[in-house]
Specification:
Elements: H1 2-20, E1 21-23, H2 30-34, H3 40-45, E2 57-59, E3 65-69, E4 73-79, E5 82-91, E6 96-105, E7 110-114, E8 123-127, E9 156-165, E10 168-169, E11 174-178, E12 181-190, E13 197-208, E14 211-220, E15 224-229, E16 233-235, E17 242-247, E18 252-256, E19 261-262, E20 271-276, E21 283-289, E22 300-301, E23 308-310, E24 315-318, E25 321-328, E26 333-344
Parallel strand pairs: 22-25
Antiparallel strand pairs: 1-2, 3-4, 3-11, 4-5, 5-6, 6-7, 8-15, 9-10, 9-12, 12-13, 13-14, 14-26, 15-25, 16-24, 17-18, 17-20, 19-23, 20-21, 21-26, 23-24
Length: 348
């Protein structure tokens, strides 16, 4: 009788974990640790209670990303009656690997956002040891070339980018499915007073479901001073109704996208997010800055500047450095993190 009870108990364990979990890449777990072949018996062994802490097992996702890499990268996610398609490629005058297009589809709506500007902010940054401090302090990096949006010559370059599907590096053209896609890009940025590359930014995008997490680390390649830097920003040409600013104390402020606006100068509570809506479709775009990160405190923002704002040329920005310059010695870093999410507005 004891044998039957034990056997039934083991079957229940295997079934419960078999329903809720799946093994990610048997070569990454069983083969490495036991040298066993990929048989059904060995997979079942990896699902015992003792092995859960030893092997890489994750929850079966509610939705899986479909991806296709051919030099450019496309990622499709279906969630809550909405299909989100993200396209990454080397784009803009600086040819940086970044968000190129965003497509949102549901039963009755279909919109395409084609990038014509940066989603991760450019810099007004100078080399400290340069004698020349020119009058025109132009942005560099992102989609900005020399002479700003005239984009005559590049002000940044892509040093490398790497793509991972569930932690496995994609090294050649392939299609597949994954719980998450991680893209790590490394770019070098020039200063407005020098033709040298004086700053290195590492941008990490992690896509899961209908969310894009963003982390940026900024490394000084020589002694630099950053005078202005937004961090996270949005392209609003498909959103024309309202922007809602969300504050750390739980309050929010709603303003029309018909006019330029901001989150308020006198508001003492920190802006954590903003969300865009449209008169023509039900999709919402939300952007946020996480509380962790050396730039997330807005310590380099003077008191007469808003923490987030929207312009008449259909863009919204956070405002991480403005009015209080940040000096970084060569080899020193700063960072921030945030992200984007997409959903269908609940009108009920």
């Amino acid at each position: 009788m004891k044998v039957k009870v034990v056997f039934a108990f083991l079957i229940l364990i295997i079934l419960s974990y078999g329903i809720g979990y799946r093994i990610i890449g048997y070569r990454d777990i069983g083969n490495v640790k036991s040298g066993k072949t990929n048989t059904l018996e060995n997979q079942m062994v990896a699902l015992t209670v003792e092995d859960i802490e030893q092997y890489e097992i994750i929850n079966e996702p509610t939705n899986v990303l479909d991806y296709n890499y051919t030099g450019d990268l496309s990622i499709d996610s279906i969630e809550n009656n909405m299909t989100l398609s993200l396209y990454f490629s080397q784009c803009g005058v600086n040819n940086l690997f970044a968000i190129d297009k965003i497509k949102l589809v549901n039963d009755e709506n279909d919109i395409l956002i084609e990038s014509c500007t940066d989603w991760i902010g450019p810099y007004i940054v100078k080399a400290i040891d340069q004698d020349s401090d020119i009058e025109n302090k132009d942005f560099t990096g992102g989609w900005h070339g020399t002479n700003g949006y005239a984009r005559i010559e590049a002000t940044a370059c892509s040093k490398a980018y790497t793509i991972f599907a569930d932690g496995k590096e994609i090294t050649s053209e392939e299609s597949g499915q994954a719980n998450n896609i991680r893209i790590v890009t490394k770019n070098h940025i020039k200063g407005y007073n020098t033709d040298n590359y004086i700053l290195e930014e590492t941008v990490t995008y992690t896509i899961h479901g209908s969310q894009v997490d963003v982390k940026v680390e900024i490394l000084a390649l020589e002694d630099i001073m950053i005078l202005r830097y937004y961090g996270l920003q949005t392209q609003n040409n498909k959103f024309d109704k309202t922007i809602q600013y969300f504050y750390e104390d739980g309050s929010l402020m709603t303003k029309s996208l018909d006019n330029e606006n901001d989150s308020g100068i006198d508001n003492k509570s920190k802006v954590m997010a903003f969300e865009l809506s449209s008169n023509n479709h039900p999709f919402l775009l939300k952007a946020w800055i996480n509380s962790e990160g050396t730039l997330s405190s807005f310590d380099y923002l003077s008191l007469d500047k808003p923490k987030a704002f929207t312009t008449q040329y259909h863009k919204s920005y956070f405002n991480l450095i403005d009015g209080i310059p940040l000096t970084l010695k060569s080899g020193k870093t700063t960072n921030w993190s945030g992200g984007y999410s997409f959903k269908v507005e609940n009108t009920k």
